[in-house]
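Please fill in the sequence for the structure shown.

STRUCTURE ENCODING:
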């Protein structure tokens, strides 16, 4: 919730600094609920970019949720489409990380406990995001820029993500994705982020296959 609140607060400040009115910014945070996509869309909105370009940029930034959805599908596939759609709307990076940390190795998937845990994470996350984002909208002007809150939000995300790295393939995926994201910063529409996601997955899969072959070779 700390990471979510910091990120929401930074996003609220960014919306106001982009020129949006307080009412417009509040409506955006209530209905969009996607910090990365919001921060990507803001400069395009300010620049007067066409709607299709703003939509495309948002899709590129959120492509990682396709992967999240595929990983979570075995846990929630027994629920009706509208319920799964609602659960997907409330999802976030932190929700995925926390859920997979607890149930990623579960042999039985789709249990009621898993649903309750998921709900127990997404509801407080959504509430803390909205409160922090609205606070950023209406109080952000009094925060000095020298505080660099966006960096604090990134550190909070790292504190959640790094403990998930438990083997070499995961470390390889993380390092490769980080390098691609850093190198790809100049790319338009934040394509560097999409490239980092794809590159990290490919590197992780290749590292896992290499590890399995090495283990198999020792058993021969």
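FILLED IN BY: designer on duty
SEQUENCE:
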């Amino acid at each position: 919730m700390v990471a979510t609140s910091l990120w929401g607060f930074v996003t609220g400040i960014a919306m106001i600094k982009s020129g949006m009115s307080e009412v417009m910014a509040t409506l955006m945070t209530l209905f969009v609920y996607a910090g990365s996509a919001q921060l990507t869309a803001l400069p395009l909105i300010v620049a007067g970019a066409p709607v299709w370009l703003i939509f495309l940029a948002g899709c590129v930034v959120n492509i990682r949720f396709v992967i999240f959805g595929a990983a979570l599908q075995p846990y929630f596939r027994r629920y009706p489409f509208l319920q799964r759609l609602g659960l997907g709307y409330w999802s976030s990076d932190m929700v995925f990380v926390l859920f997979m940390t607890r149930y990623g190795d579960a042999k039985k998937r789709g249990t009621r406990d898993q649903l309750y845990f998921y709900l127990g994470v997404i509801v407080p996350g959504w509430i803390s995001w909205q409160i922090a984002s609205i606070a950023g909208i209406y109080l952000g002007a009094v925060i000095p820029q020298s505080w660099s809150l966006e960096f604090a939000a990134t550190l909070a995300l790292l504190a959640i993500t790094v403990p998930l790295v438990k083997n070499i393939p995961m470390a390889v995926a993380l390092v490769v994705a980080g390098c691609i994201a850093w190198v790809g910063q100049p790319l338009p529409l934040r394509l560097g982020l999409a490239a980092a996601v794809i590159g990290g997955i490919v590197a992780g899969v290749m590292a896992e296959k290499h590890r399995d072959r090495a283990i198999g070779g020792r058993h021969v």
